[in-house]
Amino acid sequence: MSSLKITHVLTFIEIVDIIKGNNTIGKIMKAKIPVNCLFQGCYNPEYEEEIKKCKDKCFAYNQLNPNDRETQEKMLRSMLGKMGKEVIFTPPFWCDYGYNISVGDYFYSNHNLIITDGAEVTFGDNVFIAPNCCFTTAEHPIDPEQRKSGLEIAKPITIGNNVWIGAGSTILAGVNIGDNTVIGAGSVVTKSIPDNVVAVGIPCKVVRKITQEEKYRYPMYNEK
After folding, report:
1. Is there a contact between 99 and 119 (Cβ–Cβ < 8 Å)?
2. What's the number of CA atoms in the CB half-sphere (13 Å) around residue 211?
3. From start to end of 43-150, where are the E strands?
4. Is the Cβ–Cβ distance between 64 and 71 less than 8 Å?
5. Which of 1, 37, 45, 108 is most buried by a 10 A CB count?
């Protein structure tokens, strides 16, 4: 019998342990990543090791039956830093560390959500995320010498309560989005957006406030 090469891929036993709630993989010391300053993010063995472990979990999660909510929840709880109730990440879902992501209650993301969570990414309650969205806390230096040396900047992202992010949107490092706000499809959000507005575009800008008139935009279906 040939010797087995040790890899970072989750074994069947480890996946079963996650499902049973016996997982110890996610209970390791978190990598310490400084925020809002230059640091050696690339070519860093400590960070690369943590990312490998998280990618294994994401890969295993994405292989599940998409209707197996019970197993999905157990795997998400082993991966994320904090997770509320009634949380759905429709696969495929990818992130870098996982434990830097906090999600409130009644969170829903559609297919192909990507979160590069070198810094903390925090979602409030009742957040809806449409397909093909990206939240990235990472920035690279404009200076080419710094960039090729592997320096990065990590900036936290915060999404408030009752926020809807439209399809194909990108939320860049350091952005805060206020409560009740809607980000239109295809937006690139480069700066923070306040509460109670509709914002859209590249770069994303506020187009109007949300008012009580929104309740009357469409007639209510009345099945008789």
Report:
1. no
2. 6
3. 82-83, 88-89, 93-95, 101-103, 108-109, 113-116, 121-123, 128-129, 134-136, 138-139
4. yes
5. 108
CB 164 within 8 A of CB 125: no
Question: What is the pTM (predicted TM-score) of this model?
Answer: 0.86
Q: How confident is the model over 12-23, as a mean pLDDT? A: 51
**Distance, CA of 122 to CA of 174 (rounded, Å):** 11
Residue 6 pLDDT exceeds 60:
no
User: How much is the pLDDT for 8?
Assistant: 44
- The full set of domains in the chain, from first to last, is 32-209 (2.160.10.10)
Residues with catalytic function:
140
For residue 140, the one-letter residue type is H
CB 211 within 8 A of CB 197: no
The pLDDT assigned to 18 comes to 52
Residues 93, 89: Cα–Cα separation, whole Å: 7
